[in-house]
Structures are given as C-alpha cells and as structure tokens.
Amino acid sequence: MNSSTVEKIIKEIEQFKPTHESAHVGRVVQVGDGVVAIDGLTSVVMSEVLIFEETKSKKLAEAMEAQTELYGLVLNLEEDGVRASILGDTARVSEGMTVKSTGHVLSVPAGEELLGRVVNALGEPQDAKGPFKNMTMVPVERQAAGVIDRKSVTVPLATGITAIDAMIPIGRGQRELIIGDRATGKTTIAIDTIINQLNEPEDKRPICIYVAIGQKESKTARIAQQLREAGAMEYTIIVDAPASAPAALQYLAPFAGVAMGEYFMDKGKDVLIIYDDLSKQAVAYRELSLLLRRPPGREAYPGDIFYLHSRLLERACRMSEEKGGGSITALPIIETQEGDVSAYIPTNVISITDGQIFLVTDLFNKGVRPAIDVGISVSRVGSSAQTKAVKAVAGGLKLELAQFRDLEAFTQFAQDLDKTTADQLASGQRMIELLKQRNGAPIPMERQVAMLYAASLRIFNDTPVARVREAATLFVEYVDAQHKNVFAEIKKSGQLSDDSKKEIAKATEEFRLAHPELFATK
Q1: Do 338 and 264 belong to one domain?
Q2: Strand 107-110 to 236-241 pairing
Q3: What's phi and psi for 37, nearest 5 deg?
Q4: Is residue 95 domain-shared with residue 116, that is, in the same domain?
Q5: Which CATH number goes with the domain that contains 223?
C-alpha cells in the first residue's frame, strides 16, 4: 500500500463523524385481506402512519423499481400489539416484514394547486399532470367547529335545478342528503350543481370537491371529462377511491376531501363537497372493522358507524365572520335498496343532515327528471337560504305538487271528474312538465324566476302538456332577446320587483302572439 493511499485513509478516518438514528420499529406477525397485525410498536397512537420496509432482494427490487413507499394506518391498539390497514398494494406485504413508525398522524396535501386535478385518498396525483410543488399538509381527522364559531345558513347555493331551488332550497353551510335507489339520477343532481357554479360571479364561486367512493373508474373519468367540457374543472377537485382501491382508502376518501375543503374554508372561501356515495364508505368501514375483529352490530355494521358519518358531516358548516366567514356545503349521496329509507345507514344519515332530496324509481321511469318525490323531500334550512325572487314565485309550489300527486293517485281509476278536479290535475301535469330538466343543463336563477312567474300567470294553461317544456324554453329565450334588462335586474338585486313583474307579464302577451301554435289546447 503506497503512502498516498495511507494518507487518504487517515484523512477519511479523521473526518469521519458517527451518526445514529433512532427508529421505533415493529414486525408483521400476521397479514390478510389488507389488514396486518404488528408486534413491537408499543408507542404508536391511533391513526398514525406506518412505513413498511420491504426486503430488498434482487428479484423484489427489480419488481418494485418504480414503486413508491408503502404506508399503513394504525386502526386498532391492542394489549399484545397493533392492527393496521395497508394503504396500497396488499401483495407487497408479507409476514416478518419490518414496520417503522413515522410519528405523525395521517395528513393530505391541500392548496390552490389541487384545483382541476384528480387525486387519490392520500392526495397523490392520478391524472398524469405531474407532482404538486407548494402544498400544505393538513390532518385528515379534525374536530368540527363548535357552535360559537358557527353562523346560521342564510346565503343560497344555487343548484340550477328549478325543482330544487324552488322547493328544496340549499344554503351555503348546509348538509343536504341526496337519497334514492340505484340509477335514479343522484350523481346527475350533484354534477349539475357543480356546473351551475359557473353562473356565479368568480369572487363568490365556491370551490367544488367531488369524492368518488367505490365507483367505477370509467364513471369517474366520464364525470371529469364532463366537467372539463363545461369549463367547471378549473374550480373542482376530484378525490377518487375506486371500487378497485383497498377498503381503507374508500373509508378515508371522504375525510381527505373534507380536509382539503377545510383548507379553503379557513381562508374565508365557500366550498361545495359531494360524497358519492356514503353507503359504499359504510360498507368499506364495515369490511375493515370485521377484519380488525371489532364486534358487529345491526346489519353487521360496527357500533361506531353513526360516529363515522356524524364526525364527517359535522365538519360542513358556515363559519362566523370572526372565523373568516367561510363555509362547507355537503351533499352526501346514499343509495337505498328498493326505496327502503328505514334501513340502518339511510336513517343514520337522514338524522345527521339538514334535509333530504328523495329520488324515486317510478317517477324516473315515467320520464320525470329529476325524479324528486316532493312529498318526503325537505330542506330544514328552508326559505331562509332562498333568494327573495325565487321565494316570491315558488311559495305554494311544493304544496301544489304534493296535492297533485295525492289527487293523481285517487283519480287514476275515476271516469267522471268535476271541473275543479280536472283543472287541478291539468295544472299539476303542466307544472311537472315545466320542472323537467335534461342532464348537464342547469338554469340560472333569473331564468327560473321568469319561467315560474309566467307559469303563475297561467300562460301555459292552454298549451298541450307534451309541449309545455318547449314553450317554457322558447319563452325564456324570448325574454332574453326582447326584455334582457329583466334578467339583469333580477340577477343584480335578487328580487322580483313590481317593474320586473309588469315586464314579464308584458312579455307573456307578446309571446302568445308570436307563437300561437303553442297555445292550441287539446
């Protein structure tokens, strides 16, 4: 060994500074169905994140070359160890594997960069648009704001769906359940509400978050494409936990979504969050709980299933001015079986929310879209979160339609009807037609007001039922072309003034003369 080599070794020895790293580690003793039992982690806390340290054998290293770190989530603290759920590919975990504690609870990234993106339940990008740069990490679990920090719901959140805005108004900070059987248009209502926010001024437009839980990835991709085409994706975040994702990610997705929403709410902004759907989250949580050996209760759901949904939905509220004045409006979706609203999960969520929009298969099959049953649909916030203009024209609408449904059921076998009953049935049929709306075409508030006020003037009474929708569309277009100032005035003031009423009444007369073919009765 020459002198230069010796000098080099001596120099390296002199510069060497020993470093030590302490780690809290354990060992996987049992694994199955996405849940692991771990021995040795004596100091972990509930909901702490763990890292699985995979064996770097040559064969495994090649297979895992492009894979990220594998995380777990502590869900059970037991006397002889802990049980955790695997947040990722369960096939990568095996018995004997080392598990390291991270020392922090589960958090997700939040920030402006999320807008227009599709992420998973851990906040990781799923849309091939690259990683995030400047993000704030926010805990997935957070205690809901107290009563003192809240403010009553008074600001409307327009859905663009006339039947809802007129009869079941939703306010910013409200929790309104959308409930119904499979394929009755629940998601359509939610997506139309997101698209309708384009009609809001940019400074008042809410940030929208769509949480897909246990959905087909093709459906989520279709929704993302629909939002992009409508121009609504720029203020929307999609959190996707598809049916192929582990149960733990499906359980966490709604909490991740609301945590992202709270970041914006804390900055004084309004947020609209849609959980599609919570019945699938409940099934994922039941699966997790049974695998974690927790005792089952009613319908095999765990005893804390009510707490699962209540602590999630209570985070939706409107904050007081002292706390920034932001809000989170929640539209949870629940799927029923054969219209059974008395099942465990539907009754739970009905009791937590501030009202429900109930969609019925029979109406949907008859072509009534949205298929809302006005009899049992309700908004507990009510007209306090409704613009004065809509309130002025929609006062007796819900009662009129509920009476029509009852009358229709009683008279379907009757042969001879008196004139009053026949007129009431005809009026109800026309109103049902008027409230029909196609997918992806939300109607701005001022157009809804003009249409409903014209209906209150009985303009469509002489129109054949089959042509009522056509007549209503043409009437709104006529007002837009000939009396545009009416829409501008209603939109600006939020009220239906006497001058606007006169203008709309004048427009109805002009419209009758311009389109006589629409008023040929029978």
Answers
A1: yes
A2: unpaired
A3: -100, 130
A4: no
A5: 3.40.50.300
